[in-house]
Every structure is written in C-alpha cells, then in structure tokens.
Amino acid sequence: MVEKNYYVCTGCGMLCDDIEVESEKNTVNKVYTACRVGVAHMKDGKESAAFRVDKKPVDEAAAISEAAAILKNAKNPLIFGLGSSSSEAQELAIELARKTNATLDDASSFSLGKVIEALLNNKFKVCTLDDVRNKADVSIFWGTDPSDSHPRQLSKHAYFPRGTEKQRGWEEERTAICIDVRKSHTAKICGNYFFQIPPGGDAEFIDAIIAALAGKLPKTSYNFPPKRILELANILKGAKFGVVFVGLGLVYSLNNIEPLIRLMNALNEKANFHLVPMVRQYNMLGFNEKLFKETGYVNSVKFEDGTVKHGPEYSIVESLKAKTVDAALIVGSDLFSILPGSIAKNLREIPMIVIDPCETLTSRNAKVYISTAIGGVESGGSAVRMDGVKVDFKPAVETKRPSDEAVLKEIMEAL
Q1: What are the phi and psi torsion angles at 390 (to 5°)?
Q2: Do 385 and 13 form a contact (C-beta atoms < 8 A)?
Q3: Rounded average pLDDT over 361-385
Q4: Measured distance CA(338)–CA(117) in Å, rounded
Q5: CB burial class (10 A; 0-12, 13-18, 19+) of residue 217?
Q6: Is 123 left (phi over 0), alpha (psi -120 to 50) or beta?
Q7: What number is the average pLDDT over the span 315-320?
Q8: What domains can you pick out in the chain, each with its CATH number?
Q9: pLDDT tens for residues 178-217?
Q10: Are the CB atoms for 236 and 131 separated by under 8 Å?
Q11: C-beta of residue 112 within 8 angstroms of C-beta of residue 278
C-alpha cells in the first residue's frame, strides 16, 4: 500500500514543512516539493541498526555499556555536535554534560556562533521566514549562496514567491542583493545587484555602506565607484521591510561582529531591517538557544561540579589542540572531514563514541559506534528553525534504529 503525507524536511535549517513523501515497506520511494538536498536526505534512511565496539559488531546493550564506561572513566570528556539532533536529544546531552563534568561544544563555535549569541542578546532585529515571504522588499545575501546551501530559500521565502503584501513578487516588488567574494549561483540571480569584494574586504565594504547611508562619499581600496555604493545605499534606505541573510563568508571575514552590529544599527536608522543567520544544520539554533538559556553561552562551555566555565579554550578546536580532553562523545558530526588533519588526529589518541545515522570517516575510527535514526525521516521530535520558530516533526518511515534521544537516555541510565 503506497502512503502519501506531508512531512518536515530536516535537510537544513529551513525545516520546510510542505514535503510530500511516498513510502512503501518502510522505504521512502519518492519525495516531492523538496530541493535536491532534501530529496537526498529524505531517501537516506536505513531499516537496520549497527552497533560496534572496537570496530566489531555488538548488540545495543554492549555498545551502550561501553559508551557509559568510557564517559565514567574520563576526567574531562568532550561532548560535541547535536546540530542534527532533536531538541529533546539536545536537552539530554546538556544534562549528560553536567553529570560527567564534560566540555560541551557544537559547530557554531567555528561558524555562526558569534552572530547567534548577539541575536539571543537582542543585538539585532529579527523576523521569521514567513515575514520574509509576505513582507520583504529588499533581501541581502552576504557571504552566503543559498541557491546551493539552502536551495528553496529564494523560491519559498526571499525573492520569487507571491507574499500577502508582495503580490507582484520579484518582477516588481522585490530586490535581491548579493555581496560575496565570488560570483555564485545566487549572485547570478541578483544580476546588477551583485557586489564582488575581495577576501577579507567585508569590514571595509560595511564602512562604505554606512558612510553612504549617512550621505557621505563612500571610499574603498578596491574598484567600486562611489556612485554605485551610493545607489545601493538609496535602495537600502527605501526598504519597507529589509532582511540581511548572514553567511559564513561574512563571519569568517570579520575579526568580530561589531561592524555587523554597526551596519544593522545604521540601516535601522534609515529603514526597517532584520537579520537571519544562514544556519545549515537543522537544529543548531535550537542547541544554541537551549545552552544559552541554561548557561548564558551558546557554545564552548565546561561543566565542573555545578559551575559553568566559558571561553575559546573550551571549543572543540582548542580542546583538541591543547589535548585537554580525554574522551569524546560526538553526535551527528563528521569531525574527521571537518577539522584540519593536525587537530583531528588528536581524536585518534582518545576513546571516541560516535552517535550518527551515517557511516563517516569519524564513525569508522570510533571505539564505539551507534547507528541512530534520522530525525524527520525515521524518528520524530522538535527543532528550532533558522529564524527561531519551533517546528515539530514526525517520522516518515519506521526503523529498528534507535533515536539520538533514546541512546542518550540509555547512556544516562547506565551511568
């Protein structure tokens, strides 16, 4: 019997909730409405579970027991990841970090963490993706290429759709602007409103825009005629509902986010502008929100006998560099493919537990590997969308693989 229903895609931080799936015999056969990322993600489920200790197959109980023993014997374990886990699993991971006096971090410590922390501290005016679809007349994509990273961003929300207040869409009522170091697919869509800046040139370009907004002659050390930046400033001044989508390209270019805060303040003195971080993992923002609520920080914390320490030395990168951690629990992250080899190799020297739906380079080097269900495909729960909206999701198919939440709960009980 072929079933057809609507589901939430957990392929990225947009959490599109209009996905149509056809499944048969616990296998997703067809996916409609989703982008190419979403289709690949929704079809990635596996019916059988895998549990390994020292690369040898074991049952679930043996894997849980070994994982608990590693964390119990560690003096300073590291827990990392969780951006691709449900909010319920994230809550358990924070509780587990407290119980084991662990260092706790996620991918935001080397990506959008500073922007998200400023956002949670009310440094930026924010809006929802629904607001963008219905109201936005000016969208700036800065250091991000959603046409590749979030393929439905422009079509579903930011540029092409007919919103309740933007019935004439991109042809007459919307302007898309791209600022990037290369001519990306998004830049090509933006046409004449693409501003190509050199690597590391973002702060200087921000200063030029702020000057132009104030009616001063903008100056840059690269080849932009002042007239073109003044024209850009006039478009920004005329925005009734503007949005800046901030990507990694901008964050990596800035030593700190103070220039971005100044830009958003300057824009809101002349118009009405909001900020949305281009979060990649479907629930990274959810993890940051939960940790912020519990500790006042979004990442890089160390729990120690009821106290919380925070600093760059507790980030995944610095912890592994300094070899201050003696065990690692990695949830939903392939660190061996992300981190520089000189840092990732230090993981080989400590016992590593990997909880992940996918076989990765990291899972193949783990002392304990537990194959879990894919959230939104094989297990349900909730997550926080890139704009801060909570989204509940249900499984599309059944699986014998346990959820991240179930595994973390079992480890807690075993401790």
Answers
A1: -75, 135
A2: yes
A3: 96
A4: 22
A5: exposed
A6: alpha
A7: 97
A8: 46-107+282-374+400-414 (3.40.50.740), 113-277 (3.40.228.10)
A9: 999 999 999 999 999 999 999 999 999 999 999 999 999 8
A10: no
A11: yes
